[in-house]
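Entry for the shared binder. Reason: the reviewer on the internal report wants the predicted structure included alongside the sequence.
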Amino acid sequence: KKGTPKPEEKTSPEKILTPSQEVNADKEFSIEARLSEDGDYNIRLEFIDSAGNMAVFRKNIKLDTKPPQLSDITPRNGINIFESAANSVKIRGMTEPNITVNLYINKSAVEKETYTTRSGSDGSFVFDKVNLIRYFNIGLNPAQRSLTDFQAETTRGSDSNERRRVNLHMEAVDKFGRGTSKEIHYEIVTCWSANLTWDARALTEWQS
């Protein structure tokens, strides 16, 4: 005696395609199913012959029509980085899992440096030991500055010092070739501070 088959457990989330489609075929067949929105789908095909025998085929698919996004980039855009540390910077960010991420330094320049990494299962990625001072549009030449000028630049930011700006172009590309990009820049600053304490003493041995 045949028992009553138990209904199949549904996975969540699951999109149900309605109405179901039925075709009669003895060899090849084709069925078109329109997926309305991005997400996970469970496809179930039932094959039933004239005697009532049935075979079931299942396939899980994911519909993703949107390019990956870039977010949570650190160091954040426009931040100052000391010149002594700018030759080995760790840049982190978030995107979708298993995405190729490319980083171009001064992409518009004749010479540019390229880094490539891949996001992990959680979407996080990291570029390690990025050299930000190897390719500048204009080199980092020594410049003489007064204490007043340095304090003014520190107060208003160093946007006026274009020769110490590094432009970065970041791209995230999925396996279908769809991509998105983000433009960021960093300011390379010198390592000394204007907060100085002066101690003046009279040296009697040098007095005349």
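Summary line for the report: The CA atoms of residues 22 and 120 lie 41 Å apart.
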